[in-house]
C-alpha cells in the first residue's frame, strides 16, 4: 500500500461533541426518569402536552336497510367489522410470513458491500543533510491513507442433519395453528352473534309478553271497576286488580331497558357503535314439531374432526414435535461454504489490486456449551408433553360440550312443547275464570291467579323459544360447524 502525505484537517471540538451527543436522548428522561412517572402514590399521571392521545376511528354504521336484517345478514356485517377476526387474520399472515422466512437458508445467501477507509498514522523519517547523508535525527511525519472498494459475499448451508428442515416444519405447524385459530375466531363470532340475535329477539318477545300482561291486567281491572260501580263487587277487588296492573306496568317498563341492552350488546359484538338502531326479523311463528338429531357418538366424531380450536391445539403439538427434533439435532455438525470476492483501491485510485477472494468450507460442531443443548432437549421434551396434555384436555372439553348441548337441544325442545301447551291452557283458564267472575260465580283471587299464570306462560314460552334456537346454535358450534343448517340429521346422513 502506497503512502501519501496530506494536509491535516481537524473538526472543531464543539462540532465533534455535538455529533457524539446527537444520538443521545432528546428529552430529560435520560437524566430525570422519575419526571415521566406519577409524582407520588396519591397523584395521577399527567401526560405531556405533546402526548399523541388515542387514535380516533370513524364510528362504524350498519348499511342502509329497506327490510329487517336476517341472522345471515347480521353475520355478514359482523365479519366485516368485528376486530377479533381482523386480529386473527393479521396473526395468520404474520405466521405465514414467518414460515416463508424460515426457508431463506435453503437458498444461497448473497451480500454486497462497499467500504471507504481514511486514516492517519505517524511515520518516523530519518533526517539527512544536503548530501543525503543521515544526520542521526528522526522526524515524525503524519501520513494519510485511503482505501475503498466493493465486496461480494456468497454463503450456502450444505448440510446440517435436518436442523433447518425441523425449524421450517415447526414454523409450518405454527402457521397451521394461526390459521385454525382464525377459523375458530370466525366460528366464535358466528356463535356470539347468533346468541346475541336470539337473546335480543327473546327480550323483545318478553317485552311483548309484558305488554300482553298489561292488557290482560287492564281487562281484569275494567271488570272489577264495572262490578264496583254496579255494587256487585267490593272495592277491594278493584284495588287488588289495580295493584296487579301496576305491577305488570312496572315489569313492562323495566323490560324496555333489557331490550336496549341486548341490542347494544349485539351491535358491539358486530363491531358497530352501540348507539345505532337496526331492525331485525322476528322469530318464526311456527313451533317445531319434530326434533331430529343424529346420535351423540356421530356428533362427537364430527366435532373431533372439525373443531378449529382442537385442530389448532393439534397443530401446536406437531410444532413441538419438530422443535424437539431440532433440539436433538443441534448436537450434530453443520457444513457451510462461503466465497468472498472484491477489489480494493488505494490512495485515490492510483493503486488497486487485481481482485481478492476467499473460499471457505467450514465444518462446525458444538463440543461443550455448558449443557446448553442438553437442557434445550429437556425443554423441548417438556413442551411436547405439555402440548400432548393440552390436546387431551381439549378433546375432553369438546366431548363434554357436545354431550351437554345435545342434551340441551332435547330438553329445550320438550320445554318448548310444554310451554306452548301451558300458554294455551292458561289463556283458556283466564277467559273462563274472568267470565265466571263477571257472572259473580268466582272470586277476584282466582282471576288474579289465572292472570298471573297467563303472564308466566307468555314469559315461559318466550324463554323456551330462545333456549330452543340457542341450543341448536350451541350444538352446531360444539361440533365445529359454522351454521345450524350444516348440522346433519338422521334423514340426510
Structure description:
This protein is of the alpha+beta class and 493 residues long. The protein has two domains: 71-102 and 160-331 and 369-486, Outer membrane efflux proteins (OEP), CATH 1.20.1600; 109-158 and 334-365, Outer membrane efflux proteins (OEP). It is built from nine helices and six strands; from the N terminus they run αααββααααββββαα. Strands 1, 2, 3, 4, 5 and 6 form a six-stranded antiparallel β-sheet that branches. α3 (83-102) runs antiparallel to α4 (163-230). It is elongated. The chain starts with 12 loop residues before the first helix and ends in a 15-residue tail after the last helix. Residues 1-11, 483-487 and 489-493 have low confidence and may be disordered.
N-to-C order of helices and strands: HHHEEHHHHEEEEHH
Strand content: 5-15%
Q: Give me the CATH superfamily of the largest domain.
A: Outer membrane efflux proteins (OEP)
CATH class membership of the largest domain: Mainly Alpha
Instruction: Please give the alpha-carbon distance between the first and last residues.
Output: 86 Å
**Number of individual domains:** 2
Helical percent range?
Answer: 55-70%
How many helices? 9
Structural class: alpha+beta
Stated plainly, the CATH topology of the largest domain is called Outer membrane efflux proteins (OEP)
CATH architecture term of the largest domain: Up-down Bundle
What is the rounded Rg?
Answer: 41 Å
Mean pLDDT: 84
As residue ranges, the low-confidence spans are: 1-11, 483-487, 489-493
Number of E-state strands = 6
What can be said about the biggest beta sheet?
6 strands, antiparallel
Shape descriptor reads elongated
Amino acid at each position: 500500500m502506497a503512502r501519501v502525505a496530506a494536509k491535516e484537517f481537524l473538526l472543531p471540538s464543539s462540532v465533534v461533541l455535538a455529533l457524539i451527543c446527537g444520538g443521545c436522548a432528546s428529552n430529560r428522561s435520560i437524566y430525570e426518569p422519575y419526571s415521566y412517572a406519577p409524582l407520588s402514590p396519591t397523584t395521577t399521571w399527567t401526560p405531556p402536552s405533546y402526548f399523541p392521545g388515542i387514535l380516533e376511528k370513524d364510528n362504524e354504521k350498519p348499511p342502509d336497510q329497506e327490510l329487517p336484517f336476517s341472522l345471515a345478514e347480521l353475520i355478514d356485517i359482523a365479519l366485516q367489522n368485528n376486530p377479533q377476526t381482523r386480529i386473527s387474520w393479521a396473526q395468520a399472515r404474520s405466521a405465514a410470513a414467518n414460515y416463508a422466512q424460515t426457508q431463506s437458508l435453503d437458498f444461497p445467501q448473497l451480500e454486497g458491500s462497499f467500504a471507504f477507509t481514511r486514516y492517519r498514522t505517524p511515520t518516523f523519517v530519518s533526517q539527512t543533510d544536503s548530501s543525503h547523508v543521515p544526520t542521526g535525527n528522526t522526524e515524525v511525519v503524519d501520513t494519510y491513507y485511503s482505501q475503498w472498494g466493493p465486496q461480494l459475499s456468497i454463503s450456502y448451508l450444505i448440510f446440517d442433519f435436518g436442523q433447518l428442515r425441523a425449524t421450517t416444519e415447526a414454523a409450518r405447524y405454527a402457521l397451521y395453528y394461526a390459521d385454525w385459530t382464525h377459523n375458530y375466531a370466525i366460528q366464535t363470532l358466528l356463535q356470539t352473534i347468533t346468541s346475541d340475535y336470539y337473546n335480543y329477539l327473546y327480550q323483545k318477545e318478553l317485552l311483548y309478553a309484558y305488554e300482553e300482561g298489561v292488557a290482560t291486567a287492564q281487562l281484569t281491572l275494567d271488570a272489577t271497576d264495572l262490578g264496583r260501580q254496579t255494587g256487585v263487587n267490593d272495592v277491594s277487588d278493584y284495588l287488588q286488580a289495580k295493584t296487579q296492573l301496576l305491577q305488570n306496568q312496572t315489569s313492562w317498563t323495566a323490560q324496555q331497558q333489557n331490550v336496549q341492552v341486548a341490542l347494544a350488546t349485539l351491535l358491539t359484538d358486530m363491531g358497530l357503535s352501540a348507539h345505532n338502531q337496526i331492525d331485525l326479523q322476528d322469530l318464526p311463528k311456527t313451533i317445531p314439531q319434530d326434533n331430529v338429531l343424529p346420535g351423540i357418538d356421530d356428533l362427537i366424531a364430527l366435532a373431533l374432526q372439525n373443531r378449529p380450536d382442537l385442530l389448532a391445539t393439534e397443530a401446536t403439538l406437531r410444532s413441538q414435535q419438530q422443535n424437539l427434533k431440532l433440539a436433538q439435532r443441534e448436537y450434530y455438525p453443520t457444513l457451510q461454504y462461503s466465497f468472498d470476492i472484491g477489489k480494493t483501491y488505494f490512495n485515490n485510485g492510483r493503486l488497486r489490486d487485481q481482485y481478492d477472494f476467499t473460499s471457505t468450507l467450514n465444518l462446525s460442531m458444538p463440543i461443550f456449551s455448558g449443557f446448553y443443548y442438553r437442557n434445550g432437549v429437556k425443554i423441548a421434551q417438556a413442551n411436547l408433553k405439555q402440548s400432548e396434555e393440552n390436546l387431551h384436555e381439549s378433546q375432553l372439553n369438546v366431548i363434554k360440550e357436545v354431550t351437554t348441548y345435545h342434551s340441551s337441544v332435547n330438553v329445550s325442545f320438550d320445554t318448548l312443547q310444554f310451554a306452548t301447551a301451558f300458554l294455551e291452557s292458561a289463556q283458556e283458564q283466564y277467559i273462563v275464570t274472568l267470565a265466571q267472575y263477571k257472572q259473580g260465580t268466582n272470586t277476584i283471587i282466582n282471576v288474579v291467579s289465572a292472570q298471573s299464570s297467563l303472564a308466566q306462560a307468555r314469559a315461559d314460552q318466550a324463554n323456551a323459544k330462545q333456549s330452543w334456537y340457542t341450543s341448536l346454535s350451541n350444538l352446531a358450534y360444539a361440533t365445529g360447524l359454522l351454521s345450524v343448517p350444516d348440522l346433519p340429521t338422521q334423514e340426510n346422513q
